[in-house]
């Protein structure tokens, strides 16, 4: 059983930055890709970014390319999402995903 705990969300203004963190526990080795998804009110959950175990393969949704950066620290079983130049349309609950497990989410609200 894998547990994922996200943190770092909050209320910010357009143009601001935030860094989300997701700490994984419950396994000795976390050697699968990790990913961030988000879900805005009334919308389906959507992919944001993913990173391979080595960090050599990274993918982003077109809507966040150039503004968001995903990274991971395998020694800390942690994946990060650095979000810059935030826009109101980035407002959502952000979820961490590892294999088949999801975190509880962290709210990001961007005011205009």
Structural class: mainly beta
Q: State the distance separating the first and last CA atoms.
A: 40 Å
Tell me the strand percentage band: over 45%
Helix content: under 10%
Oligomer: single chain
Secondary structure: number of strands? 11
Shape assignment: globular
Instruction: Describe the main β-sheet briefly.
Output: 7 strands, mixed
Number of helices: 0
Work out the radius of gyration.
Answer: 13 Å
| SSE order, one letter for each helix or strand | EEEEEEEEEEE
Q: Average pLDDT, to the nearest integer?
A: 95
Q: What ranges have pLDDT less than 50 throughout 5 or more consecutive residues? A: none
Structural description of this entry:
The mean pLDDT is about 95. The protein is globular, with a radius of gyration of 13 Å. The chain has no helices and 11 strands. It has about 110 residues and is an all-beta fold. It has strands spanning about 5, 10-15, 20-25, 35-40, 45-50, 60, 70-75, 80-85, 90-100, 100, 105-110. Helix content is about 0%, strand content about 55%.
């Amino acid at each position: 059983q894998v547990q994922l705990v996200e943190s770092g969300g909050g209320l910010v203004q357009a143009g601001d930055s935030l860094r989300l963190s997701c700490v994984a526990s419950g396994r000795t080795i976390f050697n699968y890709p990790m990913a961030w998804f988000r879900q805005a009110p009334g919308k389906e959950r959507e992919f944001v970014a993913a990173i391979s175990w080595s960090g050599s393969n990274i993918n982003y949704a077109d809507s966040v390319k150039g503004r968001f950066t995903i990274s991971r620290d395998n020694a800390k079983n942690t994946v990060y999402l650095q979000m810059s130049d935030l826009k109101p349309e980035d407002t959502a609950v952000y979820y961490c995903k590892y294999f088949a497990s999801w975190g509880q989410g962290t709210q990001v609200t961007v005011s205009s």
